[in-house]
Amino acid sequence: MWPCFGLFRGSGTQGIIRAMTDAQTIERLRRIGWRGESLPAQGRQLARVVAQHRAGYELHDGEHLFGAQPAGHFLKRSLDPADRPAVGDFVEIEPGKPPHIVEVQPRRTVLSRAAAGERYERQTIATNIDYVLVLTGLDGDFNPARIERYLSLTEGSGAQPVVLLSKLDTRDDADALLAALRARLPAGTPVHAINGKDPACVAMLLPYLQPGDSAVLVGSSGAGKSTLTNTLLGTERMATGEVRGHDSRGRHTTTYRALLQLPSGGCLIDTPGMRELKLTGEENLDLFADIEVLAEQCRFADCGHGSEPGCAVQAALDSGDLSAERWRNYLKLRDEREEQATTLEAKLRRQRGGRPVAQPRGNRHPRDRE
Ligand SMILES: Nc1nc2c(ncn2[C@@H]2O[C@H](COP(=O)(O)OP(=O)(O)O)[C@@H](O)[C@H]2O)c(=O)[nH]1
Ligand SMILES: [Mg+2]
Ligand SMILES: [Zn+2]
Predict the structure, then answer these.
(1) Which atom of ligand 1 is nearest to the CA of 170?
(2) Which residue, by CA, sits nearest to atom 7 of ligand 1?
(3) Ligand 2 centre from 217 Cα, in Å?
(4) pTM of the model
(5) Which fold has domain 110-270?
(6) CATH 1.10.40, applies to 286-368
(7) Where in the chain are the domains?
(8) Is the CB of 232 under 6 A from ligand 1?
(9) Model pLDDT for residues 121-166, shown as the tens digit of each residue
(10) 38: how many CB neighbours lie within 10 A of its CB?
(11) What CA–CA distance (Å, rounded) separates 33 from 129?
(12) For the chain, where are the alpha helices, taking DSSP H only?
């Protein structure tokens, strides 16, 4: 099948040689998770962004690791930061010293968050990923509301979430925590408890890390992301840190995102712990769909779910069918999503010179249509 490439590109012996090198190039790119079929125009090369530093990018072409700089158009202040090359991107480069990134290939999936602070800015956490591994320690780090926040952010990414609980070896009551979490999250969300230091234990994650797969590890600093990464790698590649006793927080040992090739054939992106994970405003909050259905059963369409008669939410809270903690987290994330969606809409309107824009996805909320 592959030689077809060459026959289109050239003719005679030249074409066949080119075809062979194209097939080899594609084979090489497959190792770093590339799924495309056609290569860039002659004179350009494809590589994947494995790390981003202040001074430039680190790229991998399936064989070599090398540095590169973004072309000038990526540095324009008017450019949405979300359109700049990010870790996980497949980029076209032109040779040079150093090589230059000239184009970002269309992204299969994008995991982003809104940056902390006043100005609305979407930040890309990772692109072209199949799985978002949401890692939480079973120590003081354990926090179902934060897991729900991560899952909300993952919803719009196109990648599948996998909830991982580390430090299984440190407690005896993990089964009960696990059962409660499974009951709280949408059915079908994979939840695994692991000891990140034990290779036999992390083997259960290999189905997510097969050739062609890309996964990103997210979670607070100290949760054990780098420890798990090292165990999966079979080497101490990422620096890990001691956790402070009083709050189970790590010391941000990992300072940058890095995409690594695993012996199982998949690619894994380790990230530094992110202090604030603001919603972008584009989330659907599908993981709370049951609550939205419930709220539609209230007697009054504009029910405030306080002391109104016939409130289905209050009834569920009273009977224990809906946990107060989950309800509070839903309200918090919903309000934040609404606020961010409004800010995003205003920003898009400004960018388009005052013309009305399509509603951001997050506004497709049953109650908003009333
Ligand atoms: N007992 C135990 N300790 C772990 C586990 N995973 C991580 N740790 C420890 O937790 C600390 C923080 O881990 P690290 O991988 O640096 O966290 P990161 O900030 O998420 O990358 C280190 O001291 C690890 O040895 C685990 O599954 N069991
Ligand atoms: Mg780390
Ligand atoms: Zn109500």
Answers:
(1) 1
(2) 224
(3) 10
(4) 0.86
(5) Rossmann fold (3.40.50)
(6) yes
(7) 12-104, 110-270, 286-368
(8) no
(9) 889 999 999 999 999 999 988 999 999 999 999 998 999 999 999 9
(10) 10
(11) 9
(12) 3-9, 12-30, 144-155, 174-184, 199-202, 225-233, 289-295, 312-319, 324-351
Distances (CA, A) of 301 to 232, 285, 295, 336, 337: 51, 20, 9, 22, 21
Query: Structure tokens of 358?
Result: 């399509």
Q: Ligand 2 centroid to 158 CA: how many Å?
A: 24
135: nearest Cα among 199, 192, 86: 192
pLDDT computed for residue 243 by the predictor: 52
The rounded distance, in Å, linking the Cα atoms of 292 and 331 is 11
Token pair of 9, please?
Answer: 């590109």
CB atoms within 10 A of CB 356: 9
Given ligand 1 and candidates 233, 240, 249, which is best to mutate, with the most ligand atoms within 8 Å of its CB?
Answer: 240
12-104 — its CATH code? 2.40.50.140
Q: Measured between alpha carbons, how far is residue 110 from residues 83, 87, 134, 145, 160 in Å?
A: 11, 10, 15, 22, 11
